[in-house]
Amino acid sequence: MQKRLFLILALLVFVLPFAAFAQEATPEMEMMEEVEPIELPEVDALSYDGEIIIAGSSTVFPVAEVAVEAFQSAGFPGDITLSSIGSGAGLERFCVAGETDVANASRAINDGEVEACGQLDPARTPIELYIGIDALAVAVSSANDFVTELTIDQLARIFGGEYTTWADVDASYPAEAIQLYSPGTDSGTYDFFVEEVMEEIYGDEGPARILEAPGIQFSEDDNVLVQGVEGSPYAIGYFGFAYYTENEEALTALNIEGIEPNAETAESGEYPLSRPLFMYTDAGILAAKPQVYAYLNFVLTNANEFALAVGYFPTSVENLNTAKTALLEAAVGAGLVEGM
Question: 8-12: which pairs have CB atoms within 8 A and are 24 or more residues apart?
């Protein structure tokens, strides 16, 4: 919370606090500076008004929450609705119901969702904006004193119900039942875990294995998962890294395949459960609601600061440049900014 307040105050005096996070800088962040970043046209939050409706990923939610608070603190007078409902549900609300202006997602939009967007009236063509990097945290309670790392194989067999006690994982561990906590099926975190862990070991049987694991508890609310894992030394769960950093005194994030989740391993892709974070919008939405353009411009201008503020990791200048270019092209087409 202190980091968030500091960030917002710094924005109010128009000094973006990248230097304030210098103690968290990594070699990867220094390498990012070698590529010339694209500078978006400056937006004055006070000059825009109206409603912005945002929904989607619980993983992206902390970043969006900080961005919304900072945008409003910078003077935006309109109403912003931000809902954490999971990536799948957020993209459904964006592409099927057509009810939202921005969809937050911790996975890339799929072909079926793109097709659904195209069938709306008016049709939507999703614009993908890469806004940060998450390292999915596989966590146990800090009261757990016997496990510090797992392999992908062990992780799949735990969440696939093949290992039902910790002694099944390793004979030196207690013969206590493993308590499983997982995001729900609408979550992009769940989709990512199934693809990268369950299907890696079980193939097409991976989704059924986790859904049928004995005693597993699902929730779309990552805070519920955190509370469940904190509550027992024999529990294990997975969620976005920001939820671990907010509760790191009560949790232990496990190394996976011997790799610690951190800024360096997330940006390089060395940590096997690192993943990009996205926001989606549409050029027609920007044309009808310029305030959505202003908000997304603000997000991309400060994306790495927002990511660091909540415990996620900065992304490369190249990825941010791609997102900025996509937003600019849409804004030019909508007549919001002059041609590039």
Answer: 8/66, 8/69, 8/70, 8/73, 9/73, 11/70, 11/73, 11/74, 11/302, 12/73, 12/74
Rg for the chain, CA atoms, rounded: 20
- Weakly modelled stretches of the chain, pLDDT under 50: 1-3, 5-33
At residue 30, the pLDDT reads 47
| Dist. CA 235–CA 170, nearest whole Å | 15
Q: How many CB atoms lie under 10 A from the CB of residue 142?
A: 15
Distance set, CA 247 to CA 230, 273, 319 (Å): 9, 19, 29
**pLDDT (tens digit, 9 = 90+) per residue, 43-89?**
999 999 999 999 999 999 999 999 999 999 999 999 999 999 999 99
CB atoms within 10 A of CB 214: 9
3-class DSSP state of 171: coil
Q: Please tell me the number of Cα atoms within 13 Å of 239 on its side-chain side.
A: 36
Spatial strand order in the sheet of 217-219: 217-219, 179-183, 235-239, 137-141, 251-253
How much is the pLDDT for 338? 78
- Going by the DSSP 8-state scheme, the letter that residue 204 receives in this structure is G
